[in-house]
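Illustration 12: 17beta-estradiol 17-dehydrogenase.
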Amino acid sequence: MESEWDPLRALGAVTAVCLLLWAAWGVGCTVYVYLLPQVRRGAPWLRAHGAWAVVTGATSGIGRAYAHELARRGLNIVLISRNLSKLKLEAEEIERLHGRVTRVIQADFTGGLEIYEAIETGLKDLEIGVLVNNVGMLYTKKPSKLLDCENVAKRLSDLINCNIMSVAQMTAIVLPQMVSRSKGIIINVSSILGKKPNPLFSAYSASKAFVRSFSQAVGAEYFAEGVLVQTVNPCLVESNMTAGTKYQMAVMNSEDYARQALDTLGLTSQTSGCLSHAVQSFLLAVFQPNWFSLSRWGIKLSYLLLKPSN
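Figure caption equivalent — predicted structure in token form:
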């Protein structure tokens, strides 16, 4: 009788070993990416990819922080956003604080294909080493069902153009010259919400899932040609989109986030950006599994947790 259970015992032992190896690999990768300063790539390595960095959505939040941190590490900066006066102020600030050359391009990414000709012209003849596709927008300012806002068609069109088309089109503009030089870095800012479907953020999380999938595929296509593509999946970071959240204690300073996220370049193609967000991402995956978050009870709980405070 005892021998009949031997295969099951063997299967259990193999499963346990596999789980332990998986856990050890996860811990090892986390330590390597976030806790070992000696393995990080330095500013000379970053500058070797090209003299210029291009940042979309560069006048606030994560985009602004990336622009300043890249300038601090020695790159000239092209700032792209829709507000020209804010662009000029940020450009002047970068030149004053970091002594780098800047260029500004005004563009409203909720527009269609017509906006990209001017962007391509503005980037012509620049040796672009880093592209940060950061610009993004929420479908609504608060957690909502898909139809719980006015002018649904316009809002969806704006979100798709801003969050999805911008990533694809900016990549298509910058990638050819990176391939021709056999070096370059593309950083696509996704979100923790892009890792699975998220009711009450359905359109936003779907758009960020596109960013994640697109980044992985393009990164695989052009890795052998010297182009590095990294997806950044932040939790709550200081920006216009997190200004109204009631969990301000969990909101990370954007400057600290950009600095730590840039430290992971060359170490991983998928990053939460910093150790605290990696831990948060793991805990959410464990304690909010997909089957629950998509259930009616999960939706009710999400609404209670995310409902804006009065």
